[in-house]
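tmp note - Pentatricopeptide repeat-containing protein
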Amino acid sequence: MSRGILAYCKRVIAAEKAHPWRQQQKIYANHPINYFFYNSTALFSSSSRKSSSLHNYYIRKRRKWPIQPYKTQWDQIFAFRLAKQSFKQSIRKTKTHLLSDLINSFSAYEVNPTPQSYHLLFKILIQKRPSNRHDQIQEILNHIEKGESFETPECVFIDLIKFYGDNNMFNDAVELFFRLPRFRCDPSVEVLNVLLSVLCRNKMGFEMVPRVLLKSQVMKIRFEESSFGILIKALCKTGSVSNAFELVNQMVDEGFGLDQKICSLMLATMCRQLNCNVGEIMGFMEDLKKLGFEPRKDDLCNVIRFLVKKGKGIESLELLKQMKMNGVKPDIMCYNLVLDGLIHNRDFSRADKVFDEMLVLGLTPDIYTYNVYISGLIMQKKVDNGIKILNSMEELGCSPDSSTYSAILRALCEAGEMDRVTEVVNELRKKRVQLNPQTYEFLINGFISNGDVNGACCFLKEMMDKKFVPQRTTLDNIVGWLCKIGLCSKAVELLGEAVVKDVFLRMVGTD
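out:
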């Protein structure tokens, strides 16, 4: 028995000499030895009290000593951690030879690098950006292809493809995707979608998409709904709605569900194309409905906006009625667009009905609603009614803005009621509402047209004090009018103020 124990101890000492690094594990390595040593002796001491059938179990021929500590799984894990720690220490000063540093660190502890280790190399090269990172990336890829035998997961290459895309290296991204089988990698639709997203960023990459799609079929990658979505969004971005619609048809034919968001994007893209006519937009929406598309409020609002831009106010009103019949509740934006379209078409009777209907439904008018409706009243020469609505806006919880006052002031200037213009301007100043340069321009021209040069000069000085640059024609009109009525000295004074305030220099800059 003592000879067996002595032989075991010799083997352990020999193993420690062969692997000096295991001295770092002294605490962990000694416990199993002591544990099994004392338990083994206890077993031998108690074996005499056992039956004779069990006594022969411990003879040299049949005994089973504990597994040596340098062959256990935890030891491999600990060695891998030490190798990883050694690698991180070796790259603190320089990152120009990551691959050799990794191989040397792992070989020192007799373990092999894993795919995650090479993934770490790619992350370091992408984030730290050493000067020779492109050469190092190719070196690592060649080593994985020819020097390793493990099956490489595709997540190792996804970050690398994104890196190529961020640096517009589309050829390198496509080449890496084509090389995936040589890395013993079984690619899925995930890596394909990443590559498609990278290529669809600009025209140069988008031209490579057909070649990638053909190669993906050879690589037996199944095209999924997410892949269709990436391509359809890219086509909508370039304005190729017809090609996007063909892809939608193909997606439905292959048994995929219709994505409502994709259809909304296509319809919105179609509505932004001003070269389309009303018939094309309405026909396109009907084609989408046949595929199963159900337009929502935002979709119909986009169509109404298109109709208003095309001057089709009555058609926009009909679509609004159709929305309500289909159970889609229009919001204030839909009513604002229809109201704007009807007023631009000077269909004031229908506009009044739409405004009243909006109030009956409990919708609260916003500033855009009031501005559109007041402009309609001004077009009908009902300035007083517009002023009444202006005065009641704050009571209704909507404060007028500069555009609201500008519409009223312009109408009063055109009507020649300069006294009321002054009253409105004084009210603006009390409420600390700032006038914009366009408002100052028509105020100055309005006072000049009505022969009030002094009022025009006051607004011009106020405009220059606020660092606004008047139009050259506006300044010329005031100076010419002053000279015409014999106030040349005042004209010179006005020009002197313009020079002091660098108005002419800023005029040149704006020109």
